[in-house]
Amino acid sequence: MAKAQAQLADLPRMVPVYSHRYLPAGRDTSAHPVLSIHSLHDTVIYGLDLADYVDREFRTADVTAVIWRDVV
User: Fold this and answer.
1) CA R_g for the chain
2) What is the C-alpha to C-alpha distance for residues 23 and 46, in angstroms, rounded to an integer?
3) Inter-residue contact 69 to 63 (CB < 8 Å)
4) pTM for the whole thing?
5) How far is CA 41 from CA 1, 5, 44, in A?
6) Which tens digits make up the pLDDT trace of 3-43?
7) How many alpha carbons fall within 13 Å on the CB side of residue 15?
8) Measuring CA to CA, how many Å separate 31 from each of 26, 34, 37, 47, 64?
9) CA distance 30 to 66
10) Where are the domains of the chain?
């Protein structure tokens, strides 16, 4: 248990961004990816950095087919 706690102490803390999206805290983290951490085994990159994540998560879809505009 002590070994695990020592290894975890060296990892950056994760700052919640939105829902289960996180960004590593600390210095020199300006270009780190935004991660979706849903459980210990389900981690996905949701953006290359914070600006990329916000663009991907919150922009409105450009739908060209009229039939899909109401659905999206």
Assistant:
1) 17
2) 10
3) yes
4) 0.66
5) 20, 19, 10
6) 999 998 888 889 999 999 999 887 765 688 999 998 878 99
7) 12
8) 12, 9, 18, 10, 33
9) 40
10) 2-68
- pLDDT at position 25: 86
Reported in sequence order, the residue ranges of 1-72 that DSSP labels E, i.e. its strands, are 14-18, 21-24, 34-39, 42-47
How many other C-beta atoms are found inside a 10 Å radius of the C-beta of residue 20?
A: 15
One-letter amino acid at 8 equals L
Pairing of β 34-39 and β 14-18: unpaired
The encoded tokens of residue 44 equal 């996905």
Q: Tokens at residue 55, please? A: 């663009």
**Tokens 């996180």, residue?**
22
